[in-house]
Amino acid sequence: MDLIYNSKDIHIHNIEVDEEIDKKSLKSFLLSNLGLQKITLNKNQKIIITYIKELKIYQLLIFDKSIKYADFQVFEKLEYIKDDTFSFIIFQDFLYIFKNQEFYYIQNLQKDLNKDDFINFLKYRFSLDDILLRNISFEEFENLKKEYLKEKRKTTLKFFNYKQDFSFYIYIFYLFLLILCLVFYFLYFKDEKINEKPINYEEIKQNYQFKNINKEFYTLLFTMQELNIKLEELKYLDNNLKITISSKNKDSILNFLKSKDFVFLNSEIKSYDENLFKAQADVKISE
Fold first, then answer.
1. Which region, left, alpha or beta, applies to residue 45 given φ > 0 means left and ψ of -120 to 50 means alpha?
2. How far is CA 244 from CA 37, 114, 140, 229, 251, in A?
3. What pTM value is reported for the model?
4. In whole angstroms, what is the distance from residue 253 CA to residue 129 CA?
């Protein structure tokens, strides 16, 4: 893992909004907008999302891999950041804005940018009477980076959890199974005579206790997404996931079934026509 992530490698996306989105709806809002732009996130990517009130946008920063620090974090070492509500820094081809000593906004600058027009734009959008654009040289940046890394700071980056959480729905499903088993038990044995064994509720709960399968489930979904495989059906039985999948590419299904990330107990591929292949497989879930 690289210690310093270069801004040139960050995918920057600005999403215009009328107002700030409620936190409960932010995840679905983010994923739907990325879907409209045909942007697919993989399991290794990290994202930072910030609401820029002054510009009425959500700025989304996508990092292609896990990082410890981003290059703009070294500017936290600058003394004047501690004194200003807004700090405007230009380094190489980027403008960085810090708000209340924390990183706030990044913009890739055009080479033919008119500096006076740009300053007037920032003054207008951020409601400021005056703006001081501070240019950082490469030499100054390198010195700041050495000091920053020497301190072994805890990163201030706050990554957004965009992954879907299915734990609650799976838990409800197992509660439903448990209730169904109990109802069946009472209906089946209600006319039985004496010598019935008392119901052992603890044993039933132990046999049907909820198991968190998030890790395997997320890995399964991400792998399918990367291989353009559609999940047709999913069942959980005897500590195994029984899945039915489909794809227009037979090799995608074969590569999925050869994946070392899962333990396949058995699998079968069927061809419905030359443009559609389906497979059924049992995936073992770790204890």
1. beta
2. 29, 58, 57, 10, 16
3. 0.55
4. 61
